[in-house]
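Replying to the earlier thread about multi-chain prediction with a worked example.

Input:
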Amino acid sequence: MMGLTFYIAAAIAVIATVMVITRYNIMHALLYLVVSLLAVAVVLYLYGAPFIAALEVIVYAGAIMVLLIFFVMMLNLGKESAIQEQQWLKPRIWIFPSLLCLVLLGELVFLISQNHQPPSAIKVVDPKAVGMALFGPYMAAVELTGILLMAGIVGAYHLGRQKEKTLHRFLEN
Amino acid sequence: MSFVDFLSLGPLITLCAASVIAMLLVAIWRNHRIVYSFAIIAFLMSMTAVIPAIIYIPHPVPPLLVIDEFSLFNTGLILTAGLIILLLSFNYFEEREERKEEYYLLLILATIGALVLVVSRHFMSLFLGLEILSISLYGLIAYLRARARSDEAGIKYLMLAALSSAFLLFGMALVYAFTGHMDFPGIGAALRQAGYLPVSVMAGFGMMLIGVGFKLGVVPFHMWAPDVYEGAPLPVAAFIATISKGAMLVLLIRFYQDIQGNNYPMLWWMVAIIAVASMFAGNWLALTQQNIKRILAYSSIAHMGYILVAFLSGVQTGLEALAFYLVAYFITSIGAFGVVIVMSSSLQDAETMADYKGLFWRYPWVATVFTAMLLSLAGIPLTAGFIGKFYVVMAGVNGHQWFLLFMLAINSVIGLYYYIRLVATMFAVPAPGQQTTVVPALPIAGNITLGILTVLLIGLGVYPTAMMQLIQQMMRILS
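Result:
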């Protein structure tokens, strides 16, 4: 039974990812990307990593995706964008991703109602252990991640700044 | 973390702190000269922090990092190279009209990434170091946004670096799936216990080689190199050619030693094919180039091929040769880029052959330095490059790698052609009344830095013993 649920979730992940890279419209691609990430989360849950599954949903499917979608929507403002959004959200666009999501939800409900236990060989890692590892032996990694984010922010700040019309210093006065 | 851990990681921690302070400094008071001075002080302090760390070596900081002779030597090398690039940067950016302060911040951050690579002994720190380096480099490569080619170069690097990181991660996952370890010694032990190299681990190593090969710029992952070198600001190109590649190479050696890669012929062949292809592709493609930056890019591809020959020799001399070659290559590459930096005017970089025609008769000092650097790249006696190449050949002979040595000899001859062509251009007598396109800036600080590099170059070429002894002592612990 567990094998079947895995194959369904994995198939959904593959289908959704194929849809991501074949869509011409970035909004449609993003919708499928959310589905793909949710499918991966179900696989993770199935294999005894509920904490990582929750993180996958919260961080990837939640925060990052919403940010991306907002970003795309904010780029084109005005009346045109309203029409655009209407076109984006036609039923035939969102029905298929929703169907995939429904299947995933069904799987999840099924797993929970079965009181699903991962195979005995797998040791389930609880959030506390993850936290202890991150702020114990792997603290250097956490700090380095901070440096990584700083590099990203500084780079994005410099490259993202509006190009102003600048004069050479000899021409300024 | 204990007190000794802090002392051992001193260079890294100093730079991390410096990056945060530099960011605040830029936020409070935006001034090019102040940030520049601060960055120099930060590098000097970080170099000083290497000294107390020496007392405690070898000192592993489990599970991620290890501080030993090898990593400290390379830390020092990277910091010195970073400082020299920094010294060459001031005038180059002062003359350009972009905001300049973030450059120093990103340079410090990129150097942190390189330092992490040098001390890491775990997939996790490997990946973090690599990403810090890559992400800082995206910003650095596209830094001068007013220039036509900078966006192209930045996007190209971004796309390919992201793709290669994905390969690297997948490879790591495959290796982890079989061995159950992410630290290098653990992987080595697990493989020894298994007694063979399963297909999944082989595929994992192959994929990791894609990620590593991209950073090293070896064939067939070299496509980005000429365009990025051409589009990036010159000091950044020097950084990519030396620090970024050197740090990755150091990591590759450590990984290869820890898993005892010599026991697996398949792995050896993968690297050997890459080495031969890099030498040939780099040298052939450089032959027809008219752009100095592109010539240097292709030449660095070829040099990575030479270094891999030393890597593959499988003897202790090979590792020593590699470390020595790396030092010589750092000096020579930064020197060559340094010449192009001081020759560039505020309006454009001096990158075409025409800018160097008859240079000796106009600026004899710069032409002499450039000639020394090019001869070192070609491997002519009395320069560091010659000793480096000699060392590599010696390692190859010790390891009986006749095929690789034959390829290296052929390529040295091909390489000679385009280096000498460039030298000949500089010494050509200019036709009377000929106008030069670029008016060089020739800043004093840049000239002094070039002088130091030339002295180092000739010094290592004439009296390499001291450096060799240091390297031999350092490499003993790796075997």
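Strands of chain B lie at 59-61, 65-67.

Feel free to reuse this layout for your own posts.
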